Structures are given as structure tokens and as C-alpha cells.
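@channel sequence for tomorrow's demo:
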Amino acid sequence: MLGDDEDMDAEQVNMSGSVAMSVEQCYELLPTVPVGRIVFTENALPAIQPVNFMVDGTDVVFRTSRGSKVAAAARSAVVAFEVDTYNDSLTQGWSVVLIGRAQAVVDPDERVRLAELPLRSLVGDTGSTFIRVIPEIVRGRQVTSPGLTSAEPSPS
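C-alpha cells (generated this afternoon):
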């Protein structure tokens, strides 16, 4: 599992107050929000769907219906998974992104174990398919800025 070493080596803090986080920091923050976004390909275009999830070791697991678009699209596909949170004034927050392969969980014992977790589909059904995202890249950025100024319109 890799962080984005190039970004972290080049510049820890950019001009906007954004700070690269370590992989460990990313994994500390990941389970603190209830909903993430799975990014996958649908009809050769990017698609994003919110999902509730759990962290299982270093993987992310979510539940969906067997016939859902994300279940069909995520079979051994490269996906991104993102979680974030920001305060109301947008002066503090963070974002964590995992990039890796998504796999449907097919092992019966593993499915039984995952079924015992408090994990359900966001749409309210129990979902019959578990999807596991196995990250190869883990990145995070923390934002701390003294405040945002509103953009001034350009003179005409």
C-alpha cells in the first residue's frame, strides 16, 4: 500500500494550507464518517455513488444489491473510494482517497463474517453483495486555513 510519495516529498504544505497526511493518519480518519463515495466506470464514463462502509483491516467493504450498477461495474475493476469532512466555514477539513481494485466477496465464510457486521446498503435494503476495495494507493490531505475570502468579480 502506497501513499503519494511524490506529492509528500515535493511539498508537505501548499499555498492554500493543505497538508499531505500519512497513510496512518488516513486510516485513523477513514472510519470517522458514515458515508463515502465509490468512484467507478459506467458506460466508459466516471460514476460516483455514495455508500456506507466499514474498514476491514486495510480494505473498505460496503454492501449493495446484486443487480446494482456499482456491483456490476466493480468486478475486479480499478476504483477510487473517497471520504471527507469540512466545517461549515470551509476553513478546516480533510479528504482521504483510496485507489485499488474492487472485488465481490464470494467466499462463503467471509460472507457470513461480513453479514454479522452492522453494514447495510444506503437505500435501506440489506444488499446481497459485499464489495471489497483493496487499496494500492492511499492519499489524504488536511486543510487548515485562517478563512476564505469571497472572490471579487473581475472589472469589466
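heads up for whoever presents: The helical segments are 5-10, 23-29, 69-73, 108-115.
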